[in-house]
Specification:
9 strands; 11 helices; alpha/beta; 3-stranded mixed beta sheet; 2 domains; 298 residues
Length: 298
């Protein structure tokens, strides 16, 4: 096996006993919290997840009426996103039909649903001037070159508050570069998603990408291991593993706890991760390893 794979794999295994960070998010999520444009209040609870998962760069949202009141309009064909609002109200002020609640005294919950549009879906309304000072992003040349040289590289989009790979549309979504805690964390996240993208049928092809899998399933968890180990390998090739390997090991440990019964998981995932990183590095033959051979056999 290539020396860098040995080094990274050994360090990951040594660090697996450390703390677990199963939901690694190395970018500044707080500054990207979704908020209502008019009230300037942050959305809370489940609304954070409902809105943050949408692929928009703007953090501002409005109802259709708020758009009209501001003299703007929603672009044709744009779809709204649901949000919920609830509060406790006095029972005497509520119009309640439920027999169970009717028998109660005091306050009862009032739940309402609204539809909102992101500011990027709207015309005629200017975005507020950003209050925060955007910190400078210092690119790492070797990591940039590695990404640029990837064969059949998927489109990389920036914006929003999520990092993911879309297998159906074959593109990668990343938060803006300046929102990451460090350039190293940006590239580590980009490498993670690029490793996912190698599973597309036009590249290496991998069951966990080609076939739908549900969150927490064996295939889903294995794919996360492949992507994070692949990212660790690529960080090693870029010379930035010292700043990211601890986070990768902790993240991997979180998935391994779900799959303790599979004693071969790490070996197989490492083999597929090497195959993924070799593809991104545009290595064609001549560097087959025992792990790569094992990968073709499973």
């Amino acid at each position: 096996m290539c020396k860098v794979y040995d080094v990274i794999n050994s360090r990951i295994m040594e660090l697996l006993e450390q703390g677990t960070v199963p939901w690694r998010k190395p970018w500044n999520a707080e500054s990207n919290m979704p908020k209502n444009l008019i009230s300037k209040k942050d959305y809370r609870g489940v609304n954070v997840f409902l809105l943050s998962c949408m692929p928009y760069s703007s953090t501002y949202w409005l109802t259709f009426k708020q758009v009209q009141d501001r003299g703007g309009y929603v672009r044709k064909g744009e779809k709204s996103t649901p949000v919920v609002f609830w509060k406790w109200i006095d029972k005497k002020d509520a119009d309640i039909q439920d027999d169970e609640i009717t028998g109660t005294k005091g306050k009862v919950p009032l739940l309402r649903y609204y539809s909102v549009f992101n500011l990027e879906q709207v015309e005629g309304i200017k975005a507020p001037e950003p209050k925060e000072v955007i910190k400078e992003f210092n690119p790492i040349q070797k990591a940039d070159e590695l990404i640029a040289d990837m064969p059949l590289r998927p489109e990389i989009r920036h914006g929003g508050n999520r990092a993911y790979y879309s297998p159906s549309n074959d593109y990668i979504q990343l938060p803006h570069q300046h929102t990451f805690q460090s350039p190293e964390e940006y590239y580590s996240t980009a490498f993670h998603e690029l490793a996912h993208a190698t599973g597309h049928s036009s590249r290496v092809g991998r069951k966990s990408i080609l076939e739908p899998s549900y969150f927490g399933s064996h295939e889903y968890s294995k794919e996360e291991l492949v992507a994070e180990m692949g990212a660790a390998f690529l960080c090693g090739h870029s010379g930035i593993e010292n700043r990211t390997i601890e986070n990768s090991a902790a993240y991997i440990n979180g998935w391994l706890r779900k799959l303790k019964e599979d004693k071969t998981l790490l070996i197989h995932a490492a083999a597929q991760a090497q195959k993924a990183s070799d593809y991104i590095l545009n290595r064609k033959g001549g560097e087959e390893s025992e792990a790569a051979e094992l990968d073709t056999a499973v």
